Each structure stands twice: as C-alpha cells, then as structure tokens.
TrEMBL record:
Keywords: Membrane, Transmembrane, Transmembrane helix. It comes from the Bacteria. The chain crosses the membrane at residues 25-43, 55-78, 98-119, 156-176, 188-208, 228-250. This is ABC transporter permease.
Length: 258
C-alpha cells in the first residue's frame, strides 16, 4: 500500500509543488479577486436595487469561466519534454501525483472561487452603498438562494449539478494528459467531433431507421417515472466521471512507463 499511496510522501509532494508555484498561485488568486471585484462593482453601481437572486448568474458564469480552463491545464509539466521528465522522476507514486492534481485542478476551485466571489460581492455591495446610501442592495448569500428553491427539487438538482460540473472539468482534465500543446482548444475540438458523431448516430436511428414506428421505443427511452429517470441520470453521470478519471490516470501511468 505504501508503494501506491503514502500520506507522508504525499505531504512532501504538496510542499514541493507549493514551493515551485506558490508565488504564481498567490498572484493568480489576487488577479481573480481584482477581476471579480471590478465586474461586480460595475454591476452594483449600475443598479439601484439588487436582490440576492440576481447575483447567481455572476456566481455561475465567473466561477465556471475560470474553473473549466484551469482543469484543462492540469499536469503543466507535461507541456514540455524536459519538465515531463523531471516530473516523472519525482519520488512519488502515480496515485499521489494524480490525486494532487485532482484536488488542485478539480475540487479546490469550487472551494476557493466561491469564497473569493463571496468576499468580492460583499466588498462591491459595501462600496456601492457607501458611495450611494440610497441604493437597495441585498448581499450575495448562496444559502438564501438555495432556501428559495423547493427542497424536493433541491435534493434532486444538487447531486446532478455537482456531478455535471465535475464531469465537464474531468473531461478537460483528461485532455490535459493527452495533448501537450493547447490542451483546452484541442480537447474542445475533440469533444465537438465526438458530440457530432453521437448526434448524427441518433439522427440516423430516429429519422432513417424509423424506430418509433408502430409504437416501438428504444430501450433508453422507456423510463417508468421521474424517480427512475433521475436515478438513471445520476448513475450515468457517476459512470462517466469514474471512466474519465480512470482514463486520465492510465494516461499518466502510461507516460511513466514509457
């Protein structure tokens, strides 16, 4: 087990990576905070009244625009042969290197970015109201927004939204293990090609094969109720996420073996 994953060795890997890119990380987070605050200041100064729910589009768009490309540039050492060689020689297992990248590139953004957004939105609200006390601005509160949604819908939507976000990140994350140069663009092109093939396939079986004639239905279209549809969707998302992570892991393993 120690050869696969050792917590002490993993801790040293985290320390080593922080020493290499700690300054860049602080600079990046500072830049994100400044951009968030500038955009939200424009939003608050141009509106005399803002309700809590109106912050949500900014929350989703800003965080997604950063989180997805960030995942696409995982394993930055793979961009050049020299850095790849140095990275593979680190005295850590593939599982440890892979886990660190999963944490940093996929999971951490959904903790760090919402936190930055929360601080930036409250700062923007305070500055706008300080400049013009007549403004009626409700501060951003994710718990308040979620509280306005039906609990049954929330129970269904949250797992699906989380899994969907992780899948999108993970596909781009896997692309970073395949493409050395411009992994984001090349992965998006590859996804577009695959999506086109799938759409064309379903177009053929629906339009040309006439599978709906005489009341016939394909197996994937026969869903008994809403609950079954939700379970099928969640199951499919879990399979896709697991498959994507497994593919990325073995691509990293392949580089070490090669």
């Amino acid at each position: 087990m120690n050869n696969i994953f050792n917590i002490n060795r993993f801790g040293k890997l985290i320390k080593q990576q922080y020493q290499l890119s700690g300054k860049n990380l602080v600079l990046a987070l500072s830049s994100i905070f400044i951009v968030y605050t500038a955009i939200l200041l424009l939003f608050t100064f141009n509106n005399s009244s803002i309700e809590t729910l109106e912050w949500l589009p900014f929350f989703i768009i800003l965080n997604t625009v950063i989180a997805l490309p960030f995942a696409a540039y995982a394993f930055p050492a793979f961009r050049t042969k020299e850095k790849t060689f140095d990275y593979l020689l680190l005295p850590c297992s593939v599982a440890e290197k892979f886990t660190l990248n999963i944490i940093i590139r996929i999971l951490a953004p959904w903790i760090v970015l919402p936190t930055i957004f929360y601080i930036s939105s409250h700062l923007a609200s305070e500055l706008a109201q300080w400049h013009n006390p007549a403004l009626k601005i409700e501060s951003f509160s994710l718990s308040t927004i979620l509280g306005q949604i039906n609990h049954d819908d929330l129970r269904i939507a949250i797992p699906s939204i989380i899994l969907s976000a992780l899948i999108h990140q993970s596909v781009l994350f896997a692309g970073a293990t395949v493409f050395k140069k411009q992994p984001l663009i090349k992965t998006l092109v590859a996804i577009g090609i695959v999506a086109s093939v799938i759409i064309f396939y379903f177009y053929i079986i629906i339009e040309w094969a006439d599978i709906y004639q005489n009341g016939k239905m394909p197996w994937f279209a026969i869903i008994e109720n809403k609950e079954s549809a939700i379970h099928c969707l969640l199951g499919l998302e879990i399979v896709l996420l697991t498959t994507t992570w497994a593919y990325a892991f073995f691509k990293v393993k392949e580089k070490e073996i090669a």
